[in-house]
Structures are given as C-alpha cells and as structure tokens.
Amino acid sequence: LKASSSRQAFKNKFLAIHNEYRKKHGAPALTLNQELCVSAQAWADHLLSTKALQHSNTDNGENLFYAWSSTPKKCTGNEPVDKWYSEIKDYNFSKPGFQPNTGHFTQVVWKSSQEVGVGLATDENTVFVVGQYKPPGNVSNPGYFKDNVFIVKTCLIN
User: Fold this and answer.
1) Which in 33, 76, 126, 155 has the greatest CB count within 10 A?
2) What is the DSSP letter of 1?
3) Three-state DSSP state, 48
4) Residues 114, 134 contacting (CB under 8 angstroms)
C-alpha cells in the first residue's frame, strides 16, 4: 500500500506543479489521463531496463527526465517538472518557435495540451520519469508556438 500511495502522491504533485506553471502562462489546467499514465509507465520501465535516455515512438508529446545518485535517490513529483520548466531561461518569447534546449519547457506550458500521463521507474539509484501529453505540444506549424506558449502573466497592482 505504501508504494502505491507514494506513487499516487508523486502523480498528484507532478500534475499540480504542471498546473501552477501553466496558470502563470495563461494555459488551462491539465488533467491526469490513466491511459497516458500506463503508456508513460511502460516507457519509463523500458528506459530503466536499458539505462538509455531515448524517446518512445508515441504520437503524444513526451518529456523525459533522468537522475542518478550514488546514494538511494527519492524523486519528488515536482523535481522533473521544475527541471523542464527551468529551460524558460533559454526561450525567446519575442521570436516564438522551436528553439534549442527549450522543448521540455514549451511542452509543459503548451496551451492546447489538455491531458498528461506520468511514469516513474527507479532502482533506488537511477530514476527515469516520462511525461506524455495529449494533444502533443511543440507543433512547429506556422503560428503554433505564438498561439500556445505565452509569456508569464504579471499582475499589476494600482
């Protein structure tokens, strides 16, 4: 029971942190999709078994997170999302579009993505987290980045 309750807590935190970041960017909240969770979990398990960081062949959006520690590592639900979001520092909002090293960030806040699934696989020292998104973000059709990745909304107090 403990393992499943801590796994659920991880998923809840993973979702909550996504939605905190999305709110800042004027994007609607994501919901957790069970099918995406099953798919993301299967891929996280595969990555742990191969110890290789590579994308699956899913049609959904996908973010990957990897961490290794010589001492047993506990991964929290916000850790991968915070790491992905930190790429905001390299995203140029005045030139919307695909930009190197920002794809995890843009997927997290991509406005038209509605659902997310997450998988976590660990052997104590190595951690893989897979986030899958539906509909996928990072679509590079003309105008798509401009319409889906918004600058942080700031509140002005009179």
Assistant:
1) 33
2) -
3) helix
4) yes
147, two tokens: 């319409």
* 74, two tokens: 């506990």
Q: What is the DSSP letter of 12?
A: H
Q: Chain-centre distance of CA 81, in angstroms?
A: 5
What's the Cα-to-Cα distance from 143 to each of 44, 137, 147, rounded to whole Å?
A: 32, 13, 6
In what helix (H) or strand (E) does residue 37 lie, and over which residues does it extend?
Answer: helix 34-50
Chain centre distance of CA 92: 20
Half-sphere exposure of 106 (CA within 13 A, CB side): 24
pLDDT tens digit sequence for 18-54: 999 999 999 999 999 999 999 999 999 999 999 999 9
Q: Domains of the chain, with CATH numbers?
A: 2-148 (3.40.33.10)
Nearest to 14 by CA among 133, 138, 153: 133
pLDDT in tens, 57-101: 999 999 999 999 998 888 999 999 999 999 999 999 999 999 999
Residue 14 · residue 80 · CB < 8 Å: yes
Give the three-state DSSP class for 128. strand
